[in-house]
Design brief:
The chain has 39 helices and 14 strands. By secondary structure, the chain is α/β, with parallel strands linked by helices. The chain is flat, with a radius of gyration of 55 Å. Strand 4 and strand 5 form a beta hairpin. Helices cover 54% and strands 7% of the residues. The strands form two sheets. An eight-stranded mixed beta sheet has the order 5-4-3-2-1-6-8-7, with helices on one face. The chain has a six-stranded mixed beta sheet with strand order 11-10-9-12-14-13, sandwiched between helices.
């Protein structure tokens, strides 16, 4: 499978090219099929055209199927490259699978004339050639770099994003090829170029390229926007089509359209029934140019005369639209433009259009067009048609023509191939080398563009080319270090002969021959002796001869790899320098008066020179070489005639046979010198980095990873973890012994415990004693209020019972008597009184508790200085040091401090040990050693991690010293801690009976307990208030429920105490008394009982209000009209006695 097929499907055409996969890629055949949707189709195969009926070619799918029948062996096709106009968000070629096919199909509405046809061909390829890989190349992919603000339309962005409505741009395949070709022509990397490119053809567009990327393009959502074309309108007012026809939204049924595309009349008119076809009647722009009245207007003077014929109108309109984009893009690129490039069928063929557009653009600084260059374009992909040095501005703005080729546009995308290789063979994840992959890809782009990325590489290659011995050294290095390690796929050895050892050897010998030839030239110019020059020339001839023998004797043959004139050149040089050697040796024979041998040498030189001349003439090698050989032959013949004449007339020496002559000793002055940069690439790159410098094979990579893991685990377990354990053990031992804090307490006041200070601050902030006193008063007041409310409630029930009894004497009432109805309330009253009695007993207990702890709690409100002064000190005073206990304590404390300092020394030594181990581990890199060893293993067998076990053990052995030191530190620390424990026991025994210590401990414990008693008292008081609050709420709630049927609304009970007790409230409650006046007795409030707890009840009045006063509960008397009872005439009631 060595063929590549390129398919370019148009709306009614299909163009196919078949290439052979070689270096370079070669074209095998071409095929074009037109009029697919308007039979008969025109089928042109490799230059032979014929018409085929609809029975054979009815659509794109059948057209492609018919093409396959003309191929001898379609199975040889490895890849099928499809040009797809609209790729949406695809930024690179994509291998077509079901998902990609569906995604492309979804874009057909945006490019119905092209994507639909391409999909038909893709479908045919997938069905008929499943073994071939189908790849889609998108015209829109080049423009994915257009900034968002340029690509967006001023419409609702939610809708635009949902439906993909933005500028995509097209002709990207062409622009990609143009960019790389122009970069190569200008000898600059593509990423440094700013271009305005005009792709002018039946479909025309313009593109602004900034720094090698598309900045803007004339085509937009579809190819319709921008420049007009043969049948396209280009950019028009969007509402024009609705004025042009009232059928714009209908589906067209034009038989010339591809089937099932659902193209509207508007799209049909603007895409196929517009452009210069409707202006002139022809799509041939060449015909338009012939008939138009073309005027190259001066940039400073605009001719006001306008031609009215349709040919001139079409030409001028096209030029005007082109200039619109040239001017706009000139501004967008900031006038920093390298070239204005014409391309496409019209751009490449219409010299008139190029001349007019370039003349109009002269005012922007573009070069003036050279009439001769513009009329007859030179050969080559890119041609400069501007006059030299005419470009104005900081950059010379050239005018170029590029012969675009959309079938050779995409650079090889190596990313996926490299990622797959690394994943399979590299011993790592491809993402580890994504920077290397991107850098390699960019270097390849620059290389393809005609520039090498790193200037140091340029210098290196220049030095190699200037010094053939360095070139020979490079080849020797490849032959020794690279080529033997290469593994070829089965059956590919013959295809990679240029990487064979014989090929490298032949080139190395050739470089050495040239270097030796340079040495011969130097010897001749420096007028060395003829004998030495002869020896140097003999070596030159020998090197050329060895080169020829290697080339001719290589298997497989490499002779066809070289250009046809190389081997004749090498063999001619071989005989040439053999003749030179013999000639120089003959001159040496004259100096020693061996005239017969001189003649024999000249005869041999003549024979070699003739061979060289014959080979050079037949091989058609370079004329200068032939001239050198011819000149030498003439000199030899002239000297031979002279020598023979002189010998015949004067010397009469015998002339020996040529075969009897002693061979000339060779003097070698050159050898292959490997440039140092090959042994140490970092010296060449400098501050840069080696691409894939960290990439090694799987076995090597795993061995390095295993070593790193083992090293990490050893250091972690035996050094870091051991260090942490020792530190924790020491800290825990000292914590248990309360060291060194217990020692510090002997020498200086240690102050009060922070927890105690926080608790004292808390009580001080809350003004604890006052708060307790106020709470006790609140509880007492609330208890009295609850009792009063309960008494008043019972009074209300008694009044009700009396009134109910009196009413029943005069009239029978349909309800229970009051004493029966109030049984439950009376039972509740007894329960409430029991609760209040118990609460009073609890309140008395709390008061007694407060009396007991009041002094200690008050002390906690003192300042920190006063509080600390009230606590006995535990320091070892000078007076206590005179006692036996004091002296023992001092001695033990000194000994403890010495051991604690020794323990600190152990900690520091351990920390230094850890740092030294970590420093060594950070610098420990065995990759170089393992890689070298792996190179030797690779020649014998597949490299596996197990092969490096000895190396890994040897490398890890350098950490053994750290493990030994850590064990010594562990033993030292254990001994020190044991001694500290012994001394601490003695220290504690000496301090055990110290009265000052006991007094201080007792005082601190008392304060701690006082805080908890404070919290306990406050909790008891809060619970008492909540209990009394709950009791009165129940009483009032029962009253509210009982009188709700009468329409009486009794509000919820609030006594105001809880609100007054909030910490942030400093104002006294309006219904509570404070201060000294409230200390002795409970003052009566403005409203007491239920009147205090509820507002005055206002009932809806109907009729005349009674003058009867309300009860203490705030309820009206039963005779009051406020109850809204039914008026009943009653006999005069007896006098009732009311309770005061």
């Amino acid at each position: 499978m060595s063929l590549i097929l390129a398919a370019n499907a148009g709306s009614s055409s299909l163009k196919i090219s078949l290439f052979r996969l070689a270096d370079p890629v070669s074209l095998v055949l071409t095929c074009s099929i037109s009029n697919i949707t308007a039979p008969p189709a025109q089928f042109c195969f490799n230059g032979t055209a014929e018409s085929l009926p609809a029975e054979i070619i009815a659509d794109h799918e059948s057209a492609f199927a018919h093409f396959l029948t003309r191929l001898d062996n379609p199975s040889q096709i490895a890849c099928i490259c499809h040009r797809v106009v609209h790729g949406g968000d695809y930024a690179a070629p994509v291998v077509i699978d079901h998902a990609a096919y569906d995604r492309i199909a979804a874009l057909s509405d945006l490019a119905p004339l092209h994507n639909g046809a391409a999909l038909a061909v893709i479908k045919a390829c997938l069905e008929k050639m499943p073994s071939a890989k189908s790849i889609a190349y998108f015209d829109s992919a080049f423009h994915t770099t257009i900034p968002r603000h340029i690509a967006s339309y001023a419409i609702d962005q939610c809708i635009a994003s949902k439906r993909g409505l933005r500028k995509y741009g097209f002709h990207g395949l062409s622009y990609s090829f143009i960019l790389r070709s122009v970069a190569q022509f200008l000898e600059r990397p593509p990423t440094s170029l700013n271009l305005i490119v005009l792709h002018l053809g039946s479909g025309a567009s313009a593109c602004a390229i900034k720094a090698g990327q598309s900045l803007d393009t004339s085509m937009g959502l579809t190819p319709l926007s921008g420049l007009p074309g043969a049948t396209r309108s280009g950019a028009v007012d969007p509402s024009l089509i609705f004025h042009y026809t009232n059928k714009a939204g209908r589906i067209t049924h034009d038989p010339g359209m591809a089937v099932n595309l659902h193209v509207t009349m508007a799209e049909d008119i603007l895409n196929r029934k517009s452009g210069w076809k409707v202006l002139t009647g022809t799509t041939d722009f060449g015909e338009i140019v012939k008939r138009a009245k073309i005027r190259v207007r001066n940039e400073a003077k605009v001719d006001d005369e306008e031609s009215t014929d349709q040919w001139t109108l079409a030409f001028d309109l096209f030029v005007d639209r082109i200039l619109d984009f040239v001017g706009a893009y000139h501004l967008k690129l900031g006038a920093a433009i390298d070239a204005l490039v014409f391309s496409g069928g019209i751009g490449e063929r219409s010299k008139e259009l190029r001349e007019v557009v370039a003349a109009r653009a002269r005012c922007l600084g573009y070069a003036k067009v050279d009439p001769a260059k513009n009329a007859e374009l030179d050969q080559g992909v890119v041609v400069d048609i501007g006059q030299k040095g005419e470009g104005k501005g900081e950059r010379e703005k050239r005018v170029l023509v590029c012969r675009t080729d959309e079938q050779k546009t995409y650079p090889v995308n190596i990313k996926e191939a490299v990622r797959d290789y690394i994943y399979t063979h590299g011993g790592g994840h491809p993402d580890e080398f994504k920077d290397d992959i991107n850098l390699w890809q960019n270097l390849r782009k620059d290389g393809v563009g005609g520039m090498v990325h790193v200037n140091r590489i340029d210098a290196f290659l220049l030095s190699v080319s200037k010094y053939p011995i360095h070139a020979a050294g490079v080849l020797a290095f490849l032959k020794k270090s690279a080529i033997p390690k290469m593994v070829y796929p089965p059956g590919e050895e013959d295809n990679l002969r240029d990487l064979s050892e014989s090929f490298a050897t032949s080139l190395e010998l050739l470089m050495l021959a040239q270097a030796q030839e340079c040495s011969w030239q130097m010897a001749k110019l420096n007028r060395y002796k003829n004998a030495l020059i002869a020896k140097v020339a003999a070596r030159v001839a020998s090197l050329y001869q060895e080169t020829s023998q290697v080339i001719r004797g290589a298997s497989p043959s490499i002779k066809d790899i070289f250009p046809s004139d190389w081997l004749p050149h090498i063999e001619a040089k071989c005989h040439h320098f053999a003749a030179v050697s013999e000639y120089r040796k003959s001159m040496d024979e004259i100096e020693t008066s061996r005239y017969g041998i001189e003649i024999a040498r000249l005869q041999e030189a003549q024979a070699e020179a003739k061979k060289a001349y014959d080979i050079a003439r037949r091989g058609r090698i370079k004329p200068p070489v032939i001239q050198d050989i011819q000149s030498l032959l003439e000199i030899v013949q002239k000297n031979l005639s002279r020598a023979e004449r002189d010998n015949d007339l004067i010397y009469h020496h015998d002339v020996p046979a040529v075969s009897s002559l002693i061979s000339i000793t060779q003097t070698n002055l050159v050898s292959s010198t490997v440039p140092p940069a090959l042994h140490d690439p970092s010296s060449l790159i400098g501050s840069g980095r080696l691409i894939f410098g960290e990439l090694v094979g799987w076995g090597t990579k795993e061995a390095i990873n295993i070593y790193n893991d083992r090293r990490h685990n050893l250091i972690k377990e035996k050094i870091l973890n051991a260090s942490t354990e020792l530190q924790d053990a020491a800290d825990e031992a000292l914590r248990i012994l309360h060291l060194p804090s217990s020692l510090e307490a002997l020498e200086r006041p240690v102050g009060l415990p922070p927890s105690l200070l926080r608790k004292a601050e808390e009580i001080r902030h809350e003004d604890g004693p006052t708060k307790i006193e106020v709470s006790i008063e609140d509880v007492q007041r609330l208890s009295q209020q609850d009792q009063a409310i309960l008494d008043e409630a019972m009074d209300v029930l008694d009044n009700e019972a009396s009134e109910d009894e009196a009413a029943r004497k005069y009239k029978s009432l349909d309800r229970l008597p009051s004493h029966e109805a109030n049984v439950e309330l009376i039972a509740k009253e007894k329960r409430y009184r029991t609760v209040l009695t118990q609460a009073a007993a609890s309140d008395e207990t709390v008061r007694q508790k407060w009396d007991e702890w009041e002094q200690s709690i008050v002390e906690l409100t003192w300042s920190e200085e006063d509080l600390e002064a009230s606590i006995p000190s535990s320091t070892l005073s000078s007076s206590s040091a005179t006692t036996v206990q004091g002296r023992e304590t001092q001695n033990h404390s000194r000994a403890l401090r010495v051991q604690i300092e020794a323990l600190d020394d152990v900690h520091r030594a351990r920390g230094q040990l850890v740092r030294r181990a970590q420093t060594l581990a950070a610098a420990d890199d065995i990759q170089e050693r393992v890689t070298k060893i792996a190179a030797g293993f690779a020649r014998l067998a597949e490299v596996t991690p197990a092969m490096f076990e000895d190396v890994l053990d040897e490398e890890l052995a350098k950490y053994d010293k750290f493990f030994s030191e850590m064990n010594e530190i562990r033993q030292r620390q254990g001994a020190i801690i044991a001694e500290i424990q012994r001394l601490n026991d003695l220290f504690l025994r000496s301090r055990k009976d110290d009265p000052a210590v006991k007094e201080r401990e007792h005082a601190l414990q008392n304060l701690e307990l006082a805080y908890h008693k404070y919290r306990e008292i406050m909790g008891n008081l809060d619970e008492g208030i909540k209990l009394l609050d709950a009791v009165v709420t129940k009483i009032v709630g029962g009253a509210a429920e009982r009188y709700s049927h009468l329409g009486v609304n009794i509000p919820p009970y609030t006594h105001g105490i809880s609100k007054r007790r909030q910490p942030e409230t400093s104002e006294p409650s309006p219904d509570m008394s404070h201060g000294p006046a409230a200390q002795g007795s409970i003052k009566p409030q403005p409203r007491s009982g239920l009147q205090t707890l509820t507002p005055t009840l206002k009932m809806p009045a109907r009729g005349k209000k009674s003058a009867s006063s309300k009860s203490a509960l705030g309820l009206p008397a039963l005779s009051s009209t406020e109850w809204d009872f039914e008026d009943i005439k009653l006999p005069p009631p007896p006098t009732l006695k009311r309770r005061p």
